[in-house]
Amino acid sequence: MTIKYTIVRKEIYYLNLRLSDNFFYRKSLQTDSPSKARMIVFKVMNKVKSGKLKLKEDIDKFIEGLITNKLNHVIDLTEAVIDPLSKSYKHYFNAWFKSTDSIRFIIHCSGEDRPIQSYNEFIYTRLDSLSESSLSYRYFHRFSEDEIVPNEDAPFYDDFIHPTIHNEYLNHLENQIKSFVEKIKTNDSRLIRLELDELKSKFSTLLPDLVTKHNKVSHEVEVESTAPYFKDIADEFETYLHQQGASEQNVKESMSNYKEFLPAFDNLRLDDIDSSMLREVWQRVLYTPKMNQALIYGFSLTKEEKQCDDSLSKNEVKLEIQARKFQKRWDVITDEDFELKDSPLDHLFSETSLKARRTILNKIFNLALEKEYISSKPPALESLNTKIKGQIRKRIRTRFPDEEAAKLIKYAVNHREADSRNWVILLMAYHGFRTSEVTTLESANIVIDEDTSIPYINILQGKTISAARKVPIHQSITKLGFTAWVKSKNGRLFDFPAIKMSVYYDKLREELNIPKFDKDRNLLSLYSLRHNVISQLGNASEEWKYRLVGHSVSGSTKIYTTIDLENANGLIQSISYPIKLTN
User: Fold this and answer.
1) Candidates 1.10.443.10, 3.30.70.1400, 3.10.180.10, 1.20.120.140; CATH matching 402-572
2) CA 130/CA 180 separation, integer angstroms
3) Per residue in 484-499, is it b (16+ CB within 10 Å) or e — as a string?
């Protein structure tokens, strides 16, 4: 049956409009019913005629979104050539070093004369690949059973598959980016800066936030964001998936993957999630055990944890339990004590599963762009790895060398009033806390013991029973004004998740020139502060050390008695660093 403004493909009706400026618009109506198709077309055409459906404005925003993402990536790579103190430079320098490290090792061991790709060649190869790639081809094609096929259900597919004005305009903008990449293939940094400034000027309306994008760690007052929290876009995202023509099964799977990310981006707005945050979360995702490994890794729910409110429906209970499982797994893998078991590859997500999760993140940020919650997608989205290469090794953790610990602590002391993240560092350095134990503290957890008058931090719960403990507050922390600072708070002391501290430390490490590894190639991270504390408790018994830092020890009690608190206080006060603290 013929219905005006439609065509039929494989028995499914498609809306088929040709508007002004040689502009095509075609979209699946997801039905083979003539009556349903006629009703949908009637509603759509009423909106078109009334001006409520502004297809041309929609496609303009679509083009701007595609170009903005590509521009951000190109600018990110260009700054990795000319600004040696930028986040981009250091990120890509690390990537270059890793990619050439094996050849460098062979040369060192064998004495062979082998060519090594230079850092600039590494960057320009990426720039060439980026500038040569076609946005319209990449967006309007998809993988299907290991081959690339047209994605006919993508919005605006027909407009870009034909030689329309919009297709030509997108190609014109991409050619300007390609021309820029050709011009900067020089060793003249001054010329590259001039060309970069010219590029930013051309696209200034699309790049409002690039000026301060890769500055050093700073403490300026931030403008309050109006973007929604990641956890609050579930309904919008589900609607968006339906609008994209996704099947019911695909929507169900996509929403499940979205919910897996909720613990990772807890308490974060969409515009809080930058490339550094994405890389940090993705690194955890790569080594996340599948749900069928819950018993092995300790994130299966107990009977008590499965209890739900009787007022919930059966489906609501199912969703609630799923959310609790995702949260408990995230809590386990982000605990600094987490280790993969032997032969762990079978325990982890497959490459296909990782690609599906990466696709979900892309779709979420596409939605955020469309709704103008963000001005551009994080460039790191384009480079999230989905392959786990080589043998997975257990992380060998170690303490900070005294000099590096002093750098970090001195910085935290000097900037504690400007940025509360520095209080987290100080509390970890003098007490051996896990990051998550500090970021979840509330003012009520800071207590003065009635019998001994010893101030202590009451850790109420954690990964194990031993995690719940009372830890006396180090006198250095008290002298720095911690107690007064706590009194100025009401409820939670810190309004950010633990994972934000990893991103913050990564920036500090680069600014303070703290190496990523010690001389024995052991990783140095915020968790290293925990080892600094343990190593300074040398005269204490193993049981006392582990009780203070919350490790499981056979025969240990859940909390300290009054006498225990006094002994613990003496041990905590022995912690020191080669730095003079002033309040």
Assistant:
1) 1.10.443.10
2) 12
3) ebbeeeeeebbebbbb
How far apart CA 345 and CA 450 sit, in angstroms, is 52
Q: Domain ranges in the chain? A: 6-53, 56-206, 230-383, 402-572
Concatenated DSSP letters of 497-557: -THHHHHHHHHHHHHTT--SB-TT--B--TTHHHHHHHHH-TTS-HHHHHHHHT---TT--
This prediction's pTM: 0.52
Measured in whole angstroms, the distance separating CA 40 from the mean position of its chain's CA atoms is: 39
List Cβ neighbours of 213 (8 Å cut-off, separation of 6 or more): none
Q: What's the rounded Cα separation, in Å, for the pair 65 and 228?
A: 19
Structure-token pair, residue 280: 């940090």
Query: What does the pLDDT profile of the chain (583 residues) look like in tens digits?
Result: 678 778 887 778 777 776 554 555 666 777 788 887 787 777 667 656 555 445 555 667 667 777 777 887 888 888 888 888 777 788 788 888 877 877 777 787 777 777 888 888 888 888 888 888 887 776 676 655 556 677 666 666 666 766 677 778 888 888 888 898 898 888 788 888 888 888 888 887 766 443 333 334 443 334 456 789 899 999 999 999 998 888 999 999 999 999 999 998 887 889 888 887 888 888 888 888 899 988 888 889 988 888 888 888 888 899 899 999 999 998 888 776 677 776 567 788 888 899 999 999 999 999 998 888 887 888 888 778 887 654 444 455 688 998 999 999 999 999 998 899 999 999 999 998 888 889 989 999 999 888 788 899 998 765 555 567 889 999 999 989 998 899 888 888 998 888 888 888 988 988 898 988 888 777 788 888 988 998 888 777 777 777 777 765 544 444 444 447 888 888 899 999 988 776 5
Contact predicate 429/412, CB 8 Å: yes
Q: Using the 8-state DSSP alphabet, how is residue 263 labeled?
A: T
Q: Which residue is associated with the tokens 């999630």? A: 273
